[in-house]
Amino acid sequence: MSWTVALIILLVLGVIVSNLLLLKQSANHKLPSLKDKQPQDKTENQKGSAWDEDDD
Fold first, then answer.
1. What pLDDT score was predicted for residue 14?
2. Residue 48's pLDDT is what?
3. Do the Cβ atoms of 11 and 4 come closer than 8 Å?
C-alpha cells in the first residue's frame, strides 16, 4: 500500500471522527425559541404585501 493511499484513508477517518465528536458536543446545546424571533404584527415585516393577504 502506498503512502498516499494511507494518508487519504487517515484523513477521511479523521474527518469522520471529528464530525462525530462535534455532533456529540452540540447535542447538549439548546436552540432559541422561534416564537421569540417572529414579529408580533404582520404589517411590521411586510407592509403592503399582497402575497400574505392572499394566503390568509
1. 98
2. 54
3. no
| Separation between Cα atoms, residue 51 and residue 45, nearest integer Å | 13
| Maximal CA-CA distance, the chain | 67
Per-residue pLDDT tens digits for 11-48: 999 999 999 999 999 988 887 777 777 766 655 555 55
Distance CA 46, CA 35 (A): 18
**Torsion angle, alpha carbons of 14, 15, 19, 22, to 10:** 60
3-state SS record for the chain: CCHHHHHHHHHHHHHHHHHHHHHHHHCCCCCCCHHHHCCCCHHHHCCCCHHHHHHC
